[in-house]
Amino acid sequence: MTISPVAAAPDGDRTASRRSRTRHYAMTPPTFFAVEYAINPWMDTDTVVDTALALAQWETLRRTYTDLGHTVDIIDPVAGLPDMVYAANGGLIVDDTAVVARFAYPQRAAEADAYAAWMAARGYRPAQTRHVNEGQGDLLVVGSMVLAGFGFRTDRRAHDEIADLVGRPVISLELVDPRFYHLDTALAVLDDTTIAYYPPAFTDESRATLSALFPDAIEVGTADAYVLGLNAVSDGCHVVLPAAATGFADQLVADGFQPVGVDLSELLKGGGSIKCCTLEVHS
Ligand code: ARG
């Protein structure tokens, strides 16, 4: 376990205790990334992708994780599956259970086979759901529970299947704004008890659920949400987030976290950023 002392504690005792934990991630390089179809409002098929730049930005993200001491597995990209770079969607791995995605759109359906093959090669027997689940795009582990989005992609009925498969409580949260079509575009897990989120992306009922569960949550503003600032990955201390989300970065510092900005502008053309490109193996 890596312990990173927080240099300053600007907000009293609570923030003095931010600790990183060594993480295990998996990432798929954007070798075949392109915007060939539009299945979310960020995507425009007239957009030209600079593949070399996408690869360089992705490599910077990978290096950021390894420089922080984390492990990154590389998953082989598949030609003809341009969104495979968004590895978070491949499934949910908790302890010895690996649940493979079942995608909402046919354009991404075959990614499930590629992610299942990777899981099998790592020694898991991939579990399937009957209903649509888009992996860690909508299923975020926080402490001993799973926060689960629905409304655009993952089917609410999959939430019960996930609870049974991983043996953890699943909290359903309803998304209402198509720009924030996956839970990980509107909510970031910062440590086992702390989250950040963009309230307007949720129904009133789900906002009430979140404020009851996480009274100390960071509420992020519109400017940061609209650069996908919440599509971030935290090790409990360092928070890797889109570089453009400067307001959120300031909020993180005030709360004792250490923001690490990374520019993934090419991947934003597909409607994804840091977290979308990162599948965490929770073990
Ligand atoms: N183009 C992809 C889609 O619309 C982006 C997925 C982003 N991934 C995520 N975890 N939010 O499905």
Bound molecules: arginine
Q: Poorly predicted ranges (pLDDT <50, ≥5 residues)?
A: 1-11
Distance between the termini: 13 Å
In terms of DSSP E residues, the strand content is 15-25%
**Strand line-up of the largest beta sheet:** 2-1-14-3-4
**Secondary-structure element string:** HEHEEEHEEHEEEHEHEEHEHE
CATH class: Alpha Beta
- State the CATH architecture: 5-stranded Propeller
Helix content: 10-25%
Instruction: Evaluate the radius of gyration.
Output: 17 Å
Task: Please identify which CATH superfamily we are dealing with.
Answer: L-arginine/glycine Amidinotransferase, Chain A
Region (Disordered): 1-21
GO molecular function: arginine deiminase activity
Pfam family, one: DDAH_eukar
Keywords: Hydrolase
The gist of it:
This protein is of the alpha/beta class. The protein is 25% helix and 20% strand.
Compile the SSE list and pairings.
Blueprint: H1 13-16, E1 24-27, H2 51-67, E2 71-74, E3 91-94, E4 97-100, H3 111-121, E5 139-142, E6 145-150, H4 156-166, E7 170-174, E8 187-191, E9 194-197, H5 204-213, E10 218-219, H6 222-225, E11 233-234, E12 238-242, H7 246-254, E13 258-262, H8 265-268, E14 279-282
Parallel strand pairs: 1-2, 3-14, 6-7, 9-10, 12-13
Antiparallel strand pairs: 1-14, 3-4, 5-6, 8-9, 11-12
The structure holds arginine (ARG).
Arginine binds at residues 39-40, 43, 83, 86, 88-89, 108, 137, 182, 184-185, 270-272, 276.
